[in-house]
Specification:
The protein is of the alpha/beta class. Helix content is 42%, strand content 13%. Helix 13 (260-268) packs across helix 14. The longest helix has 18 residues, at 415-432. The radius of gyration is 22 Å and the shape is globular.
Length: 437
């Protein structure tokens, strides 16, 4: 692993001092049927600094170098908006690496992928990629990306010991969930953990209810983007805000000052019954104590709807790896992408870091050593009871969503007021996107 870390560090110097040439490779060599080459091949890969530290990703890169007779030069860019601007600038200038790690979902639309990225629609290896994930990396029927890492469940982490102690069952409806919270609260337990010092965590109830919304109103994203539906005037959309408002009485006393990191510690230590979270919190908790038994005392269930027969989970999808359409190294790019989602490569990923969610790859079984809550999520996937978060299928998200949700959860506003505020917030975003609202 040290070899690749050094490569990442060197690439930072490269980005700040030199500008990489288009493609960054030295030519192909003749590919064999196994995807390897008689002559060594070289590819460049641009990734943000956060994902560059993913040990699973680095393990796949190391293995690809060995198996495909390649050198993968990892270049880094900043994360966030600054890094997005780097991607856009390099694409526009014809200076993009052979492979680029970038957002999946609606943000892909904004960079005109048909001009810059390889259409993977006809590649046989794309048959392995989850169909809903392919929709998140598609524009106008063309498919452009493969999943960089695992997906994440956006749902409820729960304390198994508390559930056993108080004789609770996994709720299938929202009323059953609230009844469980009542039992825990009456017993003097923290029924729901709040970590709203990090305001983004206040959104999870609302955002994680997407499965229930999409099941009831499948065309909501399309009509919302067109300005034909609104959160406040769509009962199934308003319901997501109502659920968030229902949680107000159950939080820990310091829920407005507790941080996400502190919440990880409280939850893994058994200090609360429920936490609305994304499943990557499992890795953060394991980092704290490196005790698998403590982490495995937590399970995960979907945010319940109002019908016990409709029960499914909302998934947060990973960023994607895209291939540079204008690179001279097309064959090598496709060989690498095919290898990246192979069973051998995913095994290497799991050997380097424990996955905190299922892969968006069909028929890949998570190793038994994985966190127990990941198996809970996988059960929803296997049953076909899952939908992506709205960010992957809708172009419009208001920037003030965290603050609006924080106000609602703390009892400062009603669900109706919050929904109306969010509609106004989204109208600003729609205007910026040039949509007709």
């Amino acid at each position: 692993m040290k070899k690749k870390v050094v490569s990442v560090l060197l690439s930072v110097l490269m980005i700040t001092g030199l500008t990489a040439g288009c493609g960054g490779g030295t030519g192909e060599g003749e590919s064999t049927d196994g995807g390897t080459s008689e002559e060594p091949r070289e590819l460049s890969l641009l990734v943000d600094t956060t994902n560059a530290a993913n040990e699973g990703f680095l393990a796949i890169v190391d293995l690809a170098e060995e198996e495909l007779n390649m050198t993968i030069n990892v270049e880094t860019r900043p994360a966030g908006t600054e890094g997005d601007n780097v991607v856009k600038t390099r694409l526009a200038s014809g200076d993009m690496a052979d492979l680029c790690v970038y957002n999946s979902g609606a943000l892909l639309n904004a960079i005109n992928p048909s001009e810059y990225f390889i259409d993977l629609s006809d590649q046989e290896f794309m048959d392995r990629v989850d169909d809903l994930y392919k929709e998140a990396v598609s524009v106008d029927e063309a498919v452009y990306g493969i999943p960089f890492a695992t997906s994440r469940g956006e749902a409820v982490l729960y304390n198994k010991e508390m559930y056993e102690k108080y004789g609770l069952e996994i709720p299938k409806t929202w009323d059953e969930f609230l009844a469980n919270c009542d039992v825990l609260q009456e017993a003097g337990e923290t029924a729901v953990l709040g970590t709203f010092a990090d305001a983004w965590t206040a959104q999870i109830v609302f955002l994680g209810d997407a499965y229930n919304l999409l099941t009831a109103v499948p065309d909501f994203p399309e009509k919302f983007d067109a300005g034909e539906m609104k959160w406040a005037s769509t009962p199934e959309g308003l319901r997501s805000f109502e659920k968030l408002g229902d949680t107000t009485p159950y939080y820990n006393e310091d829920y407005l000052s507790m941080t996400y990191d502190e919440g990880c510690d409280v939850m893994v230590s058994g200090g609360a019954g429920h936490w609305f979270a994304m499943s990557n919190a499992l890795s953060a908790m394991y980092t704290l104590y490196e005790d698998m038994d403590m982490v495995n005392n937590l399970g995960m269930f979907a945010i319940p709807g109002d019908d016990a027969d409709v029960n499914g989970i909302t998934m947060w999808y990973p960023v994607a790896i895209y291939g540079n359409k204008n690179s001279e190294n097309q064959d090598a790019i496709l060989d690498f992408m095919e290898f990246y989602i192979s069973e051998e490569a995913l095994d290497a990923y799991c050997g380097a870091t424990l996955p905190d969610g299922p892969f968006c790859v069909k028929d890949y079984e998570i190793p038994v050593e994985a966190y127990a809550a990941v198996s809970d999520i996988q059960a929803y996937i296997d049953a076909g009871n899952y939908e992506p978060a709205l960010e992957y299928i809708s172009q419009v998200k208001g920037a003030d969503c965290p603050a609006i949700c924080q106000e609602l959860a703390s009892g400062q506003t009603t669900a109706e007021e919050a929904a109306a505020k969010y509609d106004d917030d989204c109208a600003k975003a729609a205007t910026q996107l040039g949509l007709d609202w």
